[in-house]
Amino acid sequence: MSPPGLSDAERRDRLRLARTERVGPVAFRELLGRFGSAGKVLAALPELSRRAGRSTPLRPPSEAEAERELERGEALGARLVVLGDPLYPPALTAVDAPPPLLWVRGSASLLARPALAIVGARIASAAGQRFARSLAGELGEAGFVVTSGLARGIDGAAHAGALQTGTVAVLAGGVDDVYPPEHAELYDAVLAQGCVVSENPPGRTAKAQDFPRRNRIISGLSLGVVVVEAELRSGSLITARLAAEQGREVFAVPGSPLDPRARGANDLIRQGATLCEGIDDILRAVTPQMRLGEPPRAFDPDAPTTDLDAPDLGDPGLLEAVAALLSPTPVPRDELVRTTGAPPAAVYAALVELSLAGRAELLPGGLIASA
After folding, report:
1. Hey, CA dihedral for 279, 284, 289, 293, is it positive or negative?
2. Which CATH topology does 316-370 take?
3. SS3 helix, strand, coil % of the chain, rounded to 5?
4. Secondary structure (H, E, C), 35-85
5. What residue ranges do the domains of the chain occupy?
6. Which residues pair with 360 in a beta bridge?
């Protein structure tokens, strides 16, 4: 059964829309805002992509394909949470261009609680793993859910430390893709005492391009991200950068300059991250946020984001004028509005249609680049 507010058909259509080629989180948000329902968007997609220059019409997955994904998830005991569901994590809703959907296995109620992420090196020191495990336990006792990515090293230690109080594992593959294999027992424990989350379909094996998206969900679910150990080029630093872009706190545990695993965390401190030697450093930073009272304004996918009666929607001349202004260097979409002099709604609509045709890339933060 669907949660209150969304019919089964609308949830299925949002799944189909999210799985459509060229429809990323930004386009998903803009299209829902423009048309009001996923069903209307799906009906309009072929024409929208054609008039923006796509040679073959953009076709979403069929209802049967969507039903097969739903059946695979249900067979695992997982539930589909789409943007607009009451169960969709409020912290994630507030980020720019939230993921259109999540598969959740385990205790979905944890996603509504305040969370902090702990991430770090896969080949972690014994001291680093001990610190992560201890910190996770203390954060749990203080009322926080601990999020991480179920990877080797620091991630695994963080999950283990928070099992008794609540932990969320965000996976790059499907919710049933246990990686690394030696974490099968830990996965089962997280499933029994916490929850597992993924935006990918059940049964999918993680690919390289899935990990940055996974990291964005880890930081988006959390009030802040704690980096325990990380080399200068690591996924943990990507998670820290994403956290900063999302307005989250970034914490770094200092380490010896003689240990390459400490260089990434030390560099974060050099760049302004909060030094973390224990839970008190975290509580000092995040407690004021929790006392502000008014939470960040969440995105309402059912509220129109453009004027549906605006002139020039789909105007070929405007489409080509906007396309000519794009380059590989991202530019704010409001700059395109100023340059063209066209109504914002018309420019935004043109950008979405260009993205559906593969001629533009819609990026978080209102940035646009040529595809």
Report:
1. positive
2. Arc Repressor Mutant, subunit A (1.10.10)
3. 45, 15, 40
4. HCCHHHHHHHHHHHHHHCCCCCCCCCCCHHHHHHHHHHHHHCCCEEEECCC
5. 106-289, 316-370
6. 370
Report CA dihedral (141, 145, 148, 149) to the nearest 10 degrees: 130
- To which residue do tokens 């409020």 refer? 90
341: number of Cβ within 10 Å: 8
Concatenated DSSP letters of 241-304: HHHHHTT-EEEE----TT-HHHHHHHHHHHTTPEE-SSHHHHHHHHHHHHTS-SPPPPP-TTS-
The continuous run of DSSP H or E covering 360 comes out as strand 360-363
Q: Specify the residue for token string 């992509």.
A: 49
For residue 304, the model assigns a pLDDT of 46
pLDDT in tens, 241-262: 999 999 999 999 999 998 999 9
* Angle (CA) 178 137 146, round 5°: 50
DSSP state, residue 20: S
Burial group, residue 367, by CB count within 10 angstroms (0-12, 13-18, 19+)? middle
* Cα–Cα distance measured from residue 213 to residue 9, given in angstroms and rounded to the nearest whole number: 27
User: What pLDDT score was predicted for residue 51?
Assistant: 84
Quote the pLDDT of residue 4.
55
Q: Write out the two tokens for 250.
A: 């970034």
CB atoms within 10 A of CB 178: 20
- Positions of the chain with pLDDT under 50: 1-3, 292-299, 304-313
User: Residue 364, class by beta-carbon neighbours within 10 Å (0-12 exposed, 13-18 middle, 19+ buried)?
Assistant: middle
pLDDT at residue 287, rounded to an integer: 85
CATH topology for the 106-289 domain? Rossmann fold (3.40.50)
Give the other-Cβ count within 10 Å of 317's Cβ.
Answer: 10
3-state secondary structure of 182: helix
* pLDDT computed for residue 295 by the predictor: 41
Strands 167-170, 195-198: pairing is parallel
